[in-house]
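Morning F.,

Quick status update on the modeling queue. The single chain you submitted on Monday has been processed. Sequence for confirmation:
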Amino acid sequence: MDRKQFLYYSSLLAMGACMPGWVNARGSKLSLPGKLQPIGRALEMDGYYVWCSSPIDGPDGKVHLFFSRWAASKKMGGWLNGSEIAHAVADSPESTFRYVDTILAPRGGDHWDATTCHNPLIREVNGKYYLFFMGNANGKTNTKRIGLATADSLYGPWSRPDKPLLDAGSAGAWDDHCTTNPAFVKHPNGQYWLYYKSWNTAEYESATTGIRGNRKYGLAIATDPEGPYRKYEGNPVIDFSGRGDNKQLEDAFVWREGRGFRMIARDMGFYNHENGLLMAAKDGLHWSDPAIAYESLDHYITLPPAPPQLKKYGRLERPMLLIRNERPAYLFGAAQGGRYMTSSTFIFKIV
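Structure tokens below.
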């Protein structure tokens, strides 16, 4: 098999005929249900970094993409102090995406989302649209909070929240620093489950450990998509900190598959910092050891040389899936580089 077309097959994600799955270091089989076919970059915008691309099929027959962007003059770190959330549409995931409008921008003043709007995740429940996102108030990580905007149409208008949807934990808790990277799924029991990333402030600010904290995932549960959300007593539900070498993960995307749950995320040292991770859980709480969901971009395409200003060049981050007929159909991610050597969306078809 051509290296650029290589992907792993799995018995756990049985969705039609599959070849034998890739076996991870702990002997379990787990992978996406098909082969990754690179479609290429989308939303290459002059003067902007583009990140966090969340796709959904619309009732108008088009694919809608909700993404974050910020001015190129702010460089890569601008996501934290100047990101906005925008909307684009295309006839299909493989055709040109057209910018429609910006739907959430930093509000300034003493608002909880005064300095950035980032991490969009679009979901539809019973004909209403829910856009989960992260905002912050001071351009720093310690005020990052998950919020929720709602609309009856993908074209808006969007109702914007006056308060965050999910606050950080109390001082000293594992999640006292922030709530961010929302991942949302409807549980078969009718509840709504919101997964979130966080870490501990003391660990993050410690001058002795040198690890700058350890990212973990928690869960909050509600009976209505708009909340209120109650944090699960057994949090964090994913914690790699006991495995050594400050192994972590981020950018989780969660979906239901068959009778279980699946999660795709960005690896932060479990294997390396270039791969994506794939995990499974029958109950959404007790997650399997991760397998590799995808590899660095140079396994699939030929990349031009890395420019000096892009330190994370060549990897796919913030992975998100377009689900069709209960099957992952396309993988969307964010990748540094592109026409303007900033960052853009990158799309794979799962065939």
